[in-house]
Specification:
Blueprint lengths: L13 E3 L5 E3 L7 E6 L6 H12 L1 H6 L2 E7 L3 H11 L4 E4 L4 H5 L3 E6 L2 E6 L2 E5 L5 E5 L7 H6 L5
Length: about 150
Amino acid sequence: MITLKAGDKAPAIKTTDHEGKPFSLAAQKGNKVVLYFYPKDNTPGCTKEACSFRDHHERFLAEGYTIVGVSPDSAARHQKFIDKFDLPFILLPDEDKSIIQAYGAWGPKKFMGKEFDGVLRSTFVIDEKGVIERVIEKVKTAQAAEQILDTEPA
């Protein structure tokens, strides 16, 4: 369950991205980061969410954000997802769920009457110093970008 909140230091991330390039949250210092967790590439809700970030990517860049998506999918699956939907941002494979668990984005879910553990769709907005500004636990997949951009101070 998500226990991180605004004001907490964002847990460190040191891994490789979908292209096998090194990625660390520490290297993002000076940039704001939208770190979003989602269950699975190429599923309806996850595709809507990724496309929302894609469609607003230029605005995120203009406002100093780096967008990073995380799911338990492999790097190869992420690359296919990126290619299929022309996603212009980083996806991190987290097959061992270590990043997902560090952010509390793993826990009990219910779908079609069945209960199971899985990725809790959530978004963390992290400031330039690595501190969490906002946690969005009720993500509206088709409006994921607007949930961040429309609530930012002018």
